Amino acid sequence: MAVKSELKLATLSYVIVYVQDTTVSLPFYRDILGMTLKSEESGWVEFETGGTTLALHVMKPGEKHAGNTKGQPIIVFTVNNVHEVRAELLSRGVTFKTECEVVCEAGDHVGMSTNFYDPDGNLYSIFSLVNRNASSSGSTL
Predict the structure, then answer these.
(1) Helix (H, G, I), strand (E, B) or coil at 76
(2) pLDDT in tens, the chain (141 residues)
(3) What is the pTM of this model?
(4) Dihedrals φ, ψ of 40, to 5°?
(5) 61 DSSP assignment
(6) Domain layout of the chain by residue ranges
(7) Which CATH class is domain 67-141?
(8) What is the per-residue burial (b if ≥16 Cβ within 10 Å, else e) of 27-42?
(9) Could you give the 3-state DSSP secondary structure of residue 133?
(10) Which CATH code fits 12-59?
């Protein structure tokens, strides 16, 4: 039975990613991923990502990095061409967990994605719609 409520979470304003050292992580996000730096202070860095801010927050001393665990959300960036962006990120030294693979179908297009890690082991994904004839059934181009 649905509960009637006026509560509505409608706007995702921040995504916070925990890292060991923001001064080490900042160049990866800014220089390798090409994100626009919004602000930086000790232990806290923000990047512009459209309507949502991606923030890096330093872990407390003694905190262990859990890595991506079952049920943990994965941040997905939409790109124009997943194959080209993957190739460019590989050339910049980014470590990928997966090849490009078909994850959904949408008419004459398929959605393709691939997952990669930041220097702290946080898992991200890039995604794009690709013409069904160009997708090679999930193989990389």
Answers:
(1) strand
(2) 666 778 777 788 999 999 999 999 999 999 999 999 999 999 999 999 988 999 999 987 766 655 555 567 889 999 999 999 999 999 999 999 999 999 998 889 999 999 999 999 999 999 999 988 766 544 433
(3) 0.79
(4) -145, 130
(5) T
(6) 12-59, 67-141
(7) alpha beta
(8) ebbeeebebeeeeeee
(9) helix
(10) 3.30.720.120
